[in-house]
Amino acid sequence: LTGGLAGTEADALVDHHCHTVTNAELDRDGFERYLTEAHAVAAGTSRFDSLLGAGVLRWCAPLLDLEPHVGPDDYIARRRELGPSEVNRRFLSACRTTDLLVDCGFQPADPLDTASLETASGARVHHVLRLETLAEEVSAGCPPEDFPEAFRSSLLELAPDAIALKSIVAYRGGFGFDPRPPTDADVVEAARAWTKQCEVQQRRRLDDPVILRFVLWSAAGLGHRLQLHAGLGDPDLRLHRADPSLSSDFFEAIEHTGTTVLLLHCWPYHRQAAFLSAVYPHVYLDLGLALNFVGPRARDVLAETMELAPFAKLLYSSDAFGLAELHYLGALRFTMALEGVVAKWVTDGELAPAYGASVKALVGAGNARRVYGLDETGEVRHG
Ligand SMILES: [Zn+2]
Question: Ligand 1 centroid to 45 CA: how many Å?
Fold first, then answer.
């Protein structure tokens, strides 16, 4: 018995934040690069020697017709024998996901396009729009004086086709930013200085604090769904500034706009994020990325999050990037953790069995369907 999602009574899932997978043929080194957030690892060590790497060899090997705990070289050899299309199809179709909300702002090599991702997964794909990327594109095409109006009109044009907007302000300056909206005059002045800086640095990377606030406030003005990276990520991040509770004043200030805030990943600030979701009606959270990395500790991290997060405020995401294995493992870790946590509460008499089942259905899919306006057939309700 190999276990895995096929062996559970899992409900369907909505993955409300993920990325596409690569269709490239990967050798061991190419595969391992997707097993870490690090830009490099210590010489002579393997990325497989981690809970994430061990999790792949334990839980993903059976889907390639291998025994659990196969060695990395045998795993990669079998993967190459099957080829990328078959590997992607096997893992993506095993996720039991009805909808994938895909952030295309960050792409793996040779990315699977939307139609192929839908075919391989059997899920509907919806697109998430990256705010900082849009600001970088708009600013490259207009003088600083025109930037505020040009950005607002681009956003107004593109936002209706996006299921959510996403910001990586946690990476670009952190959550402790001034919570007030800047004036257009402030933004123009900042855009002038930023344009000069871009010319000197020969790249256009938005890290100006005034423009970042402007972008967030412009998004908030639309009353859309706003995904915010929080907690762990790659080394571009300064982790202590990725604590979302540093932005409590901002969340409070935008409550009246009708914006829904979705905090992504959150670990190790999942307890702070759970608190925010408990006290603000418009704040939600997930544990995407984190559950894959903490592996067998996923149940504990989920239980810590659910100490305070109302059942209607927690969503599922894999934040999988590049490897179809990470989509599958994300779904598996989440499902096993949720089943474990809820089963314990049912056994202890804390939850009635039927209520426990409805909590699992809410967290796995129901909350996302409600928040994103997805009905059972995958249509998006507008307005
Ligand atoms: Zn992501």
Answer: 26
